[in-house]
Amino acid sequence: MNATLRHPATPVHMLCAVHRHRPAQTRARDAKGTDMKPIGIGTQEHSKALLAGWISRKELAGELDLAVDTLARWEARRVGPPCVRAGRKVLYRRSAVQDWLQAQEMPRAKKAGGRR
Fold it and tell me: 24 with 10: CB under 8 angstroms?
C-alpha cells in the first residue's frame, strides 16, 4: 500500500493526520453537481447548544484538579458526581456536579475548649 495517498497539489498540513489522505469534500453538491451550502456550517454551534449544560470528564477533571482516572474510579464505585454515557463519551451535568459538591461540604468543626 502506498504510504502517502495524497494529491500532489494538497499541502501536507491539510492532510488527515491519521490516514494521510485528502480530507472529504467540504461542500455539498446537488444532483446536477452544483455547489450547495457548505457542509458543517452551523453544526458546531448546534452541538454546542445541545451540550450547553454538560461538561466532559476531561474538562471536569481539569476544573477539579483531579486525574481523569479518579473520576472513572468514582463512577465505578458510584461515589462521584452523577454522569451520563453517550457511547464512549462520559458527560456530567454542570448543575448536578454543583449539587454534588454542595453535598460534599462538611460542616465547620466546633472549636475545642470548655467553659471559661
Answer: no
